[in-house]
Amino acid sequence: FPYTTLFRSVSQSRYSAIILHDYVGGGTSFGFPSTPNSATAFNQIFAHTFSYVADQMSSTGDIGLITGTLPATEIWITEFNLYDQNSFHRIHGTWAHGLKIASLLLTYLEEPQIKKIDLHSIVGNSTFSALFNDGNGFQNTGNFLPPLSTPASTSWNYSALGNAIAPIAQTIRKTASHEQLVITGPPFLDAQNTIPGIYGWIFEGPDSYEAIILRLDFPNAAFPIEQINISGFWPSSNYSIERWYQSGANYNSNSIS
Model pTM? Predict the structure, then answer.
């Protein structure tokens, strides 16, 4: 699509916003249910999100072309999700799907021109929606092979996608400003040690601060969360941390362990 040709042919004042649909692939070179190198496959899925976003925001990417040509125009992402057409990847509907799209959602905060975002759909199945609308939400994933049977979903319960993005949406709704945590690693998601396995933001509201921190690297006892180097993180009596992938866990205000 010739963005620059189109944008430069019309006065910038004619645009209220540019609307995009953003779909990221799975990013792994492995197929399932074959037995891959689990750590490599796991890290590939999440590293791919950040390399994909970097490409999108570069001067030749979809978002970068808009910001470079129309620096005062808002960007609205009215659909975003995972869309992996490789039937052997089997990521849709899993917790990896939820975490991957949670990290994609947070990366949108890195571009100030992105003003509105909207998930593909709120109600439907585990592939595209945050909430199930019936008992057949997993039927389309192909994740459950004999002798396993496909489990039933429960209407109006969260999918993995909904569980992952709901706490972020709730946090953002209550805050007025945000700042990305500078995380220098290790652990890393890529062999070049350029993409940290921890990604997070601090959100400031009228009464408190909250942090959303995603732990995306393959489980590794050598890098417990309390040893991660997070620049700008400080203990405070009004600082709450919600590691929402461990529901009900107890955290005090002075520790992230």
Answer: 0.82
